[in-house]
Amino acid sequence: MTRKTKVAKFPLSVKLGAIRDYYSDGSSITAVARKWNIVRTTLSNWLKSCPVDAKELSLPMEVIDQYRMKHAELTNEEILQKRISDLEQALAYEKMRSRAFEKMIEIAEKEEGISILKKRWCQTVEALRSEYPDVTVETLCGLFGRKRQWFYKNRGKVISERQRRKLICANVEYYRWLCPRIGCVKLYIILRAELGEEITHGRDAFLHLLAEEGYILPKLKRRYTTDSDHPYHKYPNLIQSVDAKYVNHIWVADITYIWIVGDVLYLHLVTDVYSHAIIGWCLSETLEAENTVKALEMAIQTAGGDNLCGTIHHSDRGSQYACYAYVDLLRKHHIQISMTERYNPTDNAVAERQNGILKTEKLYLEDMFLNYEHAKLGIEKAIAFHNYQRPHMSIGMKIPMNVYRYEEPGKNLWKKTNGCSCPDEK
Questions:
Q1: Contacts with 116 (C-beta within 8 Å, 6 or more apart), sequence order
Q2: CA atoms in the 13 A half-sphere facing the CB of 171
Q3: 30: buried, middle or exposed (CB in 10 Å: 19+, 13-18, 0-12)?
Q4: Domain that holds residue 208
Q5: Which value, to the nearest 10 degrees, does the dihedral of the CA atoms of residues 285, 290, 296, 300 take?
Q6: Distance CA 53, CA 45 (A)
Q7: Which of 17, 70, 285, 384 is the most buried (most CB within 10 A)?
């Protein structure tokens, strides 16, 4: 009678531990068998009977351990099938979750009027790079349907919406400090050139932002003062049907008042119509003609010539412009004299408009000028900003002094109505 050999039974944890060590450590079968105190042949049989190869299946051994310990009665094939089923369910759930987020973004974009996916994908890719360092930039960009080149092109331009608004507001505050009543469209033109359209966005969006931040200015009423009741000769209107064709073709002159504490000052201006540059000015405490003559002398000096025979000087019928001293200076430099035929602001619209721009955008401050010196400093700053920084709609959004000095081509856009007119600046 043959005696049966008793076969040793090993717990599942021993089998899995030996198989794991064999695949993970790269040790030989003999070394692993000796480590676990089992026969080499037994380990070989375990390896043959176990279809799980961690290297080929790319599954962590912990997954196999978990399923083997929980479902010891299942075969290896059943374990893998259940794992596949669980993964498919998890994938379907993640797809639904991803679609839910996409739908939420679509609704937010529609109701809030913003473009999240279009403007924030680059920031998202930048954030994901730190979370998934092993994933290529091309793969991350592909999640949003973008190319890798677009990411590197735009990454330096990306700022948050809060940073963008803060940057715009800071610049608006600066230019409102330079020119307290400069219009919002002018600010848009200036900041679009300085910051770029990716910061300012479109004009309407820019104006909407300024409205939300409280930067829209109320309109102010204008005041008119002119005394044309004098004995001097009144000249005809020479620019009734004439457009300014070049620099120093037509000059317009006017006088406006500037309030100071307890008194009033008078600002005498001479403006080149073609470029809208203020080429002569004088601030005085009286309306005496000698101050008006000083403004004209500055204009002649700015024009840089004694003979200005191609120039037409146009003004209202104020006594300062019709007096002998002023007329003699014009004739000395061969400048033709033109005046309005009746008191109508449209007959001297460019000069009137220049007064309005300076006063409504720059000189109507909450606090009045303290004295003459204080007012003169403010007006010097206002005229410098007007000539060298402020774009003008009537010359194609160019800078006046750039046009006057032939650095930029002029572009007359003002409407011709009666005499020399211009559109409302905004």
A1: 105, 108, 109
A2: 21
A3: exposed
A4: 161-213
A5: -130
A6: 14
A7: 17
256 is written with which tokens? 């406006």
Q: Provide mean pLDDT across the span 362-368.
A: 51
Domains contained in the chain, number: 4
Q: How far apart are CA 32 and CA 143, in angstroms?
A: 45
Handedness of CA 412, 416, 420, 421 (dihedral sign): negative
**Domain identity same for 42 and 142:** no
The answer to whether position 97 is within a domain reads no
How many C-beta neighbours within 10 Å does residue 17 have? Answer: 17
Q: H-type helices in 132-201, by residue range? A: 137-142, 148-154, 161-178, 184-195, 197-200
If asked whether residues 189 and 65 sit together in one domain, one would say: no
Q: Is residue 133 part of a domain?
A: yes
- Tell me the backbone φ, ψ of residue 415, rounded to 5 degrees: -80, 140
Indicate the range of 15-19, 134-138, 307-311, 327-331 predicted with least confidence: 15-19
Q: What is the pTM of this model?
A: 0.48
Does residue 283 lie within any of the structural domains? yes
Q: What angle do CA 140, 142, 148 make, to 5 degrees?
A: 75
- In tens, the pLDDT along 156-189 reads 555 677 888 888 999 999 888 877 778 888 899 8
| Structure tokens, 412 | 């007359």
Q: What is the C-alpha end-to-end distance of the chain, expressed in Å?
A: 117
